[in-house]
Structures are given as C-alpha cells and as structure tokens.
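Tip: read the tokens left to right.
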C-alpha cells in the first residue's frame, strides 16, 4: 500500500519528462559577453587574464610580464606578478616588488588588492619552500659526507682486522712448524 503513492509520483515525473519543451518564444538573444575593458570588475579581468596566461611557456610568461610592467597601474603590476608567478624561473623578490605597493596602498581596488595579497603570500611561501629545499640539500650533502667518512673508517678497520687475522694465522703456522 505504501508503494502506490511512490509509483504515482514516479509515473507523474516520467509523464512530465515526456512532454517536450514549449516552443521557443521570440525573445532577444542574450547579449554577448562584454569585452574585458567594459567589465566593471577588475576581478573578472584578472581571471580572464589568468586563463590567457595558462598555456604560455616560461619565456612567453617573462615577455608578458615585461609588457605589463610598462604600464604603471596597480592592475598592470598585479598582472605582471601573475605572469611571473606562473613561471618556474621567476624570482620571488621580483614578484614581491611588484605586488607589495598594491597590497599596502589603501586606495587600491579591493579585487586588485586581494589578488596582490594572494600573490604576496604565494611568493613568500615559494621563497620559504626554496630556502627549505636548499637547507635540505645541504643537510643531505653533509649526511653523505658523514656516511662516506664512516665507510672509509669501516674499510680501514676491516683492513686492520684482516691484517691482524693474517698475523695470527702466520704465528699459528710458525708455532706448528717449530714443534
């Protein structure tokens, strides 16, 4: 008995799905997306710019960053920093130098300031990671040197042990021939 309402509901939804959509009415087509310069939000412009940068090589990203640096606006500096942050060869100090003024300035557009702060944190983390990687590399080299020194010492001790064993055998052979 409990299944009947569920079956009725299922049949009703299936019937609704079978009814085709209404004929389209003649409405105006939706407007095409506005060009980047006409958009009101710099966040949208930055997101579009980031999607433009995604497929670029390191050399193209560096060239794009240089092109953006020619303009002196906060938005162009943040764009240059975005390009550099996607490049593996970029220096964190360069990224920080581009975004620090925009992140600190009070009258900066809030979207630009947010992206600048994000890039600032990203560059700082990248710097820390590079420093940690360099320290880990240094520790690894030191540990390898220590392991090599221990191996050399173990080899030297083994040679001494072998020499003592040979000496003991020769003394034992001498005593057995003299008797």
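Filled-in amino acids:
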């Amino acid at each position: 008995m409990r299944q009947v309402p569920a079956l009725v509901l299922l049949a009703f939804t299936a019937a609704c799905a079978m009814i085709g959509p209404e004929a389209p009415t003649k409405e105006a087509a939706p407007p095409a997306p506005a060009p980047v310069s006409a958009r009101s939000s710099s966040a949208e412009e930055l997101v579009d710019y980031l999607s433009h940068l995604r497929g670029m090589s390191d050399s193209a990203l560096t060239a794009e960053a240089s092109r953006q640096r020619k303009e002196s606006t906060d938005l162009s500096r943040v764009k240059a920093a975005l390009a550099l942050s996607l490049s593996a060869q970029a220096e964190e100090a360069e990224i920080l130098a581009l975004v620090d003024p925009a992140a600190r300035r009070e009258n900066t557009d809030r979207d630009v300031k947010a992206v600048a702060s994000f890039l600032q944190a990203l560059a700082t983390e990248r710097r820390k990671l590079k420093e940690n990687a360099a320290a880990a590399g240094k520790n690894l080299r030191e540990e390898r040197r220590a392991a090599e020194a221990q191996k050399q010492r173990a080899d030297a001790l083994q040679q001494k042990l072998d020499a003592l064993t040979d000496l003991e055998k020769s003394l034992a052979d001498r005593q057995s021939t003299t008797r």
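The mean pLDDT is 80. The helical segments are 3-18, 42-53, 58-69, 74-86, 92-104, 110-178.
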